C-alpha cells in the first residue's frame, strides 16, 4: 500500500508513513503545513543532545544566501516525524560543533557528528542533500515505530531485531544499552572494513528494538515469540522473507549471544533460516519465482505456459489474503502465521 503523498506550493513534498487513522494523518498534515525548522541558540544544544537520538543542524551566518534556507526547509519536510531539523546562526553553537566557516550541515547521533560533505546548498542541490540525510537518518540502534517500520522491516538491510519487555523499566534500560553497545561495536567493524576495503558487496546491517509488550500479537504471529520469552533476539532478512533465531550451535539467540559472529554466519549462510511467510504465501511466492524463471519456456510453448499461468492465478486467488493495513496492523511486514518454535 502506497503512503499518502503531500506536496507543497514551494516545491516541497512529504510522504506520510504513520498509522492509517485520521487523527495521526491530520497531526502529520498540521506539522507538514507549518515550519519544519526550529531555530536554536547557545543554551539549546546540550538539551537537544540529551532528548534526541538523532537530529540535523544547519549552521549559517549573515553572509549565507537566503536560497539556502529554502533548500533546508524543503529537505526537512521530507523527514517529518523521522529527523528533527534545527537551524542556528549562534556563534556559540557553531563553535561547539566545530563549524569555522558557515554554512554547514551536520547530523548528530550516537555521540558523533556527521558533516554533510558538500559545500553547496542551492535549491537545485536539494536531492543530493536529501539522499545524504536518508543515508544517515537512523542511529546505530533504532526503535521501531509505525513511521519507520516499513522502511526497516521491508528494506534490503540485514536487521538485528531485539524484542524487549518494556513493562519493567530497569531491565528494559539495561537490555537496550546492551543492544546499543553491540550496534556501536558493529559500526566500528564496518568502518574499519570500509577503510581497508576488506569486504565487498556486504549488506548494510541495522540494529533495531521493538516493544514486545505493545506488539505482542505481531511478534508472536510473525516470529513465534511469546511474551514469556522476552527479551528475545531475531536476525531478519526482509528481502528474502527469512529470519534466524538460532546460532550455529542451534542455541536460541539472545542479548548475551556473540552477535558479531551471528551476523557473519547469517550473511554467509551458516544459520538455518525460518520464513516469515505462511504456507499459502510461500506457495504464491514459489509460483511467481517459477513463472519468472521459465519465461523462455513461455515464448516457445505458449499454450502450455498459459495453462500454468491460469492455474497459478487461480491458486493465488484462493490462497492469498490481502493485507488490510490499519492502525494496529501497520507494523506488519508479514501477515502470515509461523510455527510457534518458542513454546
From TrEMBL:
Lineage top rank: taxon: Eukaryota
Membrane topology: Single-pass membrane protein
Transmembrane listed as a keyword: yes
GO cellular component: endoplasmic reticulum; membrane
UniProt keyword terms in alphabetical order: Membrane, Transmembrane, Transmembrane helix
Matching Pfam families: Thioredoxin_6 (PF13848)
Compartments in which it is found: Membrane
Xref: InterPro entries: PDI_TMX3 (IPR052250), Thioredoxin-like_sf (IPR036249)
Protein name: Uncharacterized protein
Amino acid at each position: 500500500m502506497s503512503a499518502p503523498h503531500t506536496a507543497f506550493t514551494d516545491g516541497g513534498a512529504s510522504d506520510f508513513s504513520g498509522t492509517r487513522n485520521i487523527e495521526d494523518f491530520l497531526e502529520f498534515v498540521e506539522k507538514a503545513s507549518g515550519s519544519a525548522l526550529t531555530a536554536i541558540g547557545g543554551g539549546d544544544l546540550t538539551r537537544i543532545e540529551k532528548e534526541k537520538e538523532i537530529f540535523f543542524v544547519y549552521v549559517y551566518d549573515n553572509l549565507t544566501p537566503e536560497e539556502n534556507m529554502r533548500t533546508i526547509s524543503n529537505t526537512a519536510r521530507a523527514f517529518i516525524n523521522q529527523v528533527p531539523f534545527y537551524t542556528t546562526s549562534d556563534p556559540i553553537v557553531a563553535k561547539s560543533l566545530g563549524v569555522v566557516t558557515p554554512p554547514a550541515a551536520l547530523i548528530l547521533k550516537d555521540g558523533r557528528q556527521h558533516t554533510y560533505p558538500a559545500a553547496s546548498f542551492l535549491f537545485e542541490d536539494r536531492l543530493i542533500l536529501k539522499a545524504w540525510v536518508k543515508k544517515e537518518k537512523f542511529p546505530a540502534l533504532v526503535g521501531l515505530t509505525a513511521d519507520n517500520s516499513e522502511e526497516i522491516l521491508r528494506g534490503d538491510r540485514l536487521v538485528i531485531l531485539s524484542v524487549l519487555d518494556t513493562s519493567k523499566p530497569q531491565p528494559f534500560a539495561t537490555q537496550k544499552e546492551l543492544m546499543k553497545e553491540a550496534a556501536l561495536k558493529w559500526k566500528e567493524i564496518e568502518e574499519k572494513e570500509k577503510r581497508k576495503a576488506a569486504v565487498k558487496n556486504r549488506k548494510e546491517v541495522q540494529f533495531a528494538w521493538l516493544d514486545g509488550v505493545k506488539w505482542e500479537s505481531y511478534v508472536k504471529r510473525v516470529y513465534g515469540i511469546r511474551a514469556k520469552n522476552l527479551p528475545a533476539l531475531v536476525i531478519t532478512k526482509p528481502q528474502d522473507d527469512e529470519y534466524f533465531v538460532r546460532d550455529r550451535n542451534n542455541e536460541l539467540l539472545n542479548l548475551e549471544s556473540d552477535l558479531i559472529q551471528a551476523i557473519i554466519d547469517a550473511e554467509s549462510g551458516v544459520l538455518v533460516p525460518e520464513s516469515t511467510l505462511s504456507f499459502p504465501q510461500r506457495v504464491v511466492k514459489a509460483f511467481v519465482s517459477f513463472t519468472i524463471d521459465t519465461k523462455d519456456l513461455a515464448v516457445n510453448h505458449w499454450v502450455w505456459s498459459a495453462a500454468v499461468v491460469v492455474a497459478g492465478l487461480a491458486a493465488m486467488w484462493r490462497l492469498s489474503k490481502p493485507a488490510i493495513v490499519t492502525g494496529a496492523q501497520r507494523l506488519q511486514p508479514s501477515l502470515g502465521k509461523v510455527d510457534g518454535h518458542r513454546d
